[in-house]
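Late entry, evening session. Most of the bench is empty. Finally got around to the prediction I had been postponing all week. Sequence below, unchanged from the version circulated by S.P.
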Amino acid sequence: MAATSLIVLDNSEWMRNGDFVPTRIEQQFEAFSRICDAKMRHPESMVGLMTMSGKTPNVLVTPSTDIGKLLGSVHGVIRYEGEANVLAAMQIAQLALKHRPHKNHAPRIVLFVASPINEAEDKLVKLGKQLQKNEVAVDIVNFGEEQENTPKLEAFLAAVNKNDNSHLVNVPAGVGILSDVLAQSPILAGDSSGGGGGGNLNEFGVDPELDPELAMAMQMSMEEARRAEGGEGGGDAGGDAAPPAAPAAGAFGIDAEDAELQAALAMSMEGVDEPASSADVTMAEPASATEAAAPTGEPADMYSDPSFLSEVMSELEGVDPNDPEVKAMMEGLSDDSKKDEEKK
């Protein structure tokens, strides 16, 4: 069945760690490539890409059928940035899928998490219920900080799951290559068998007859990773040093949040169609977990800051800050912010 999927990658400073050889982010890239290949076996399916770390989650590619564009974006523009904003990223992903080109496509989010989740469990559960209500399925790849994040992600999965349409795959360090583990998981099992081929998959979940270049590239990449694993014995251990807590993004009701999320989505998509030049590629070399600690100076819950949202919405076409509904939403956010301050 044709589907529109949005893959959310973790690009936080924690991704430098070498417990997944050579680094967490490199194994994530390989897993991303395999997922794209499996999902696009159906000729009408579309896949989008976004990152969730730094000040604002960033939409790199809106849902597309061009696998070359997706793979090029991964290796061209992704940077290590601060800490993961799981809640904000999922909210923006939900909005992006709501405006997908083909409304008859089943919407799905594939979330990679390899950083500590700073958001409270109850907010994740609330978001899970919103996603279930809007028929959005979620697949989660939990690795790196797997033990720490499992309880929160299990609670989120219980809220979003509907008729077994969502899945959580926990991958501890040392069990093998991330993409190999996913190939045997429910996240890829359904896509690999559907729509165009899939009967002659090699060990990497790729049909060499349909895509010989991708099959060869993944074979070479896996061999290089295995050699590195055998010769170097790993890098920085995950969790040696924990970055300071990231500001938690706010969760709102789906009907009241559209204007706010539209603003966040517009910010996250700035320059999305601009091709990256070689000068834009700033992927750093793996560093120690101590160097991975990123200072945070952002105000807590920036998506609930009325002045921040007012400034953003005033610059968006089609959004009138003086509209009564927008004003009402802003006043509600202000009241919520005051209540939070009183609790402190």
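Two things to note before I forget:
Residues 192-201, 232-256, 273-300 have pLDDT under 50 and may be disordered.
The chain has one domain: 3-268.
Will write this up properly tomorrow.
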